[in-house]
Design a protein that fits this description.
The chain is of the alpha/beta class. The chain has 2 domains: 3-160 and 297-308 and 317-350, Medium-chain alcohol dehydrogenases, catalytic domain (Quinone Oxidoreductase, Chain A, domain 1, Alpha-Beta Complex); 162-293, Rossmann fold, CATH 3.40.50.720. Helices cover 25% and strands 26% of the residues. The protein contains 12 helices and 17 strands. Strands 3, 4, 5, 8, 9, 16 and 17 form a 7-stranded mixed sheet that branches. Helix 11 (326-334) links the parallel strand 16 (318-322) and strand 17. Helix 4 (161-171) packs across helix 5. The two termini are 27 Å apart.
């Protein structure tokens, strides 16, 4: 039978998140039932809870960086068993038959993927609820194995911030000999530095903050360029093979494009608004540069990313919070007052905190 469980939800665009009971569906034959232990807090959670992107379906239960233990599995599930440590990221379903899905690129599903929260279940028409809750029921195809050696707490942000930066680095085959720059040092940027360094690249951080050099080097940067310093930017002209741009708001791309080599690539992973100010097309044309975008990642590459993290000892830098402090955490996130991702200890919800 469907079960009523505890969670935290926004009831409107202006309401703070508060305790709310939700109904989880009856498990299907291909489902995995997961006891949620940790849930990362993503900036997208704020956007959706406050309806800043439109289309919010209230009550909204956010959370798409989920780590927990398997409680039970459906009759058709063979990949997981009770007790396994697993994760669920931004997706919980897709059409499973279009070309992107067949390639393991479910995030680009032509019939639109089913997102972990604030989406419509393609089988029963119910609204999906995320990881700010005690349990979740997910198709086994969209469940990831958290390898031994990866701390479950800091694994949670890997399922969004991690894969969002891993996917473009892998797609453009970044490795030894490449010069990579990361724009912005936040939840995404700090993972980009770690991954690019572990892949063997020479890594630079572009930042507007003069005081971030020591921190950037700790995270894997070989060099730091102050993007507000014209002389430093001029010295960086034509230097990079690849720029990973994690900034989530409108900013001038032209100074960064000028730092790319011929055939260099500038990838946007944070910006979902129109590019403003406009890009000077000549900067692209006269050096055969590419301005591209990338969206999270598919299930195969997300598992690959988790396995890479286990092999190389990579995890997200996190700050643990109790569920009751989520509204304070949102306000701190808006001030960039977190290094670099909040993770909710879901025991605090289960214990009534």
């Amino acid at each position: 039978m469907a079960s009523s469980i505890r969670g935290y939800a926004a009831q409107s665009a202006t309401a703070p998140l508060a305790p709310h009971r939700i109904e989880r569906r009856d498990p299907r034959a291909d489902d995995v039932v997961i006891d949620i232990l940790y849930c990362g807090v993503c900036h997208s959670d704020i956007h959706v809870a406050r309806n800043e992107w439109g289309g919010a379906r209230y009550p909204v239960v956010p959370g798409h960086e989920i780590v927990g233990r398997v409680i039970s599995v459906g009759d058709k599930v063979t990949r997981f068993k009770a007790g396994d440590m697993v994760g669920v990221g931004c997706l919980v379903d897709s059409c499973q038959h279009c070309e992107p899905c067949a390639q393991g690129l479910e995030q680009y599903c032509k019939e639109s993927p089913t997102f972990t929260y604030n989406a419509i279940d393609r089988h029963d028409g119910t609204v999906t609820y995320g990881g700010y809750s005690e349990r979740i029921v997910v198709s086994d195809k969209f469940v990831l194995r958290v390898p031994e050696g990866v701390d479950p707490k800091s694994a949670a942000p890997l399922l969004c911030a991690g894969i969002t930066t891993w996917s473009p680095l892998r797609h453009w085959k970044i490795g030894k000999g490449h010069k990579v720059a990361v724009v912005g040092l936040g939840g995404l940027g700090h993972m980009g530095l770690k991954f690019a360094k572990a892949m063997g690249a020479d890594v630079t951080l572009f930042t507007r903050s003069p005081g971030k050099e020591a921190e950037a080097r700790r995270l894997g940067a070989d060099h730091v360029v102050l993007s507000t310093d014209p002389k430093q930017m001029e010295a960086a002209a034509g230097q990079f093979d690849f720029i990973l741009d994690t900034v989530p708001h409108q900013h001038d791309l032209n100074p960064y494009l000028a730092t790319l080599k011929i055939d260099g690539v500038h990838v946007l992973v944070g910006l979902v608004e129109p590019v403003d100010p406009p890009v000077h097309a000549g900067s692209l044309i006269f050096a055969r540069r590419t301005l591209a975008g990338s969206l999270i990642g598919g299930l195969p590459e997300t598992q690959e990313m988790l396995d890479f993290c286990a092999k190389h000892g990579i995890s997200a830098d996190i700050e643990m919070i109790d569920m009751k402090d989520i509204n304070k955490a949102y306000e701190r996130m808006l001030k960039s007052d977190v290094r670099y991702r909040f993770v909710i200890d879901m025991a605090s919800l289960k214990n009534g905190a």
